[in-house]
Design brief:
The chain is an alpha/beta fold and about 300 residues long. About 25% of the residues lie in helices and about 25% in strands. Strands 1, 2, 3, 4, 6, 7, 8, 9, 10, 11 and 12 form an 11-stranded mixed beta sheet that branches. β2, α2 and β3 form a beta-alpha-beta unit.
Length: about 300
């Protein structure tokens, strides 16, 4: 990687299972949402540039809050709105559509502000401190136009006690390169067994099975492929709820032999808020991390 280390945060989605705008929902009394813990951890690993993809619902007061943090802490911060027409579209009527175009489109929206290799994450996932260091040491020397990276997590560490979750189950080759990511939308633990439902039947998976939580390390060359794939997606006349997902785009690049994706298991604990009730779990987790002096009570003081 070149000297500038960039973090791209996807915060533009409209979550259907969580009540409220969870991307900027403060977890503790300090008012910091999960994405600020990600920024804090990235800065500790010498990242110096943050790009956040947002939708128009994000409060201006939150933008001003993080702008002030950026100025005080001396990192570059860019806000990019994910609009229906961020990437120009012709010959397709999408006037009925309410949902954004998906994570692949969200990444593509950043093409004008990122010219260097970058880490991509979800705003509402807590990825842990160590994974950012892993990025710098384990992936950085290898990222190129033909090689990306993925920090994956054991599925057992990514479940919710409040319902099923969607996860990308990774299949790797003998050298730990990604062969396939299979999105399963109904993973849960029942009586200490992890299962997902497919074609009406339950399929068991091992607790240490690696799943993608969208912690990718990309070369900026990905924007060229994303643009082509997005126009292919539009040409297919997608329904009003169909989305253009980043894992599908990466899979297509692998299948077309454009890239190899190196996979490493994250050493960090993952936490997230798929459901509103998950917020209490991450609250307890962060309070215990603060007691262990891994985070200050107020991130930015």
């Amino acid at each position: 990687m070149n000297s500038k280390k960039t973090l791209l945060i996807l915060a533009g989605g409209l979550g259907s299972r969580y009540k409220g705008l969870k991307q900027v929902d403060g977890i503790l009394d300090n008012g910091s949402p999960i994405l600020e813990y990600s920024v804090y951890d990235a800065l500790a690993a010498d990242f110096s540039k943050v790009v956040i993809i947002v939708n128009r619902l994000i409060p201006q007061s939150y933008i001003e809050r993080l702008n002030a943090v950026s100025e005080a802490k001396g990192f570059e911060l860019h806000w990019v709105y994910q609009e229906m027409d961020s990437i120009s579209i012709s010959d397709f009527d999408y006037s009925e559509r309410q949902k954004p175009w998906g994570t692949g489109h969200a990444v593509l929206c950043a093409k004008d502000v990122i010219q260097e290799p970058f880490v991509m994450i979800n705003a509402d996932d807590f990825y842990g401190k160590e994974v950012y260091q892993l990025t710098a040491e384990g992936f950085a020397p290898y990222i190129s136009e033909t090689q990306f990276g993925l920090a994956a997590y054991p599925v057992d560490t990514t479940l919710s006690g409040n319902g099923t979750v969607a996860r990308g189950i990774c299949t790797l080759d003998s050298e730990n390169y990604l062969v396939h990511v299979e999105e399963q939308t109904s993973i849960q633990k029942i009586n200490d067994t992890i299962i997902y439902t497919e074609n009406g039947g339950n399929i068991e998976i091992a607790p240490d099975t690696l799943v993608s939580m969208n912690f990718f390390i990309f070369h900026p060359s990905i924007f060229n492929s994303l643009e082509k794939y997005f126009y292919d997606f539009i040409a297919s006349k997608p329904g009003s709820t169909q989305e253009f997902y980043i894992p599908s785009a990466v899979q297509r690049m692998i299948d077309e032999k454009k890239v190899k994706v190196m996979v490493k298991a994250s050493p960090s604990q993952w936490m997230g808020v798929t459901y509103a009730d998950d917020k209490n779990n991450i609250k307890d987790f962060l309070m215990s991390e603060i007691q262990k002096n891994r985070y200050p009570e107020d991130l930015w003081k």
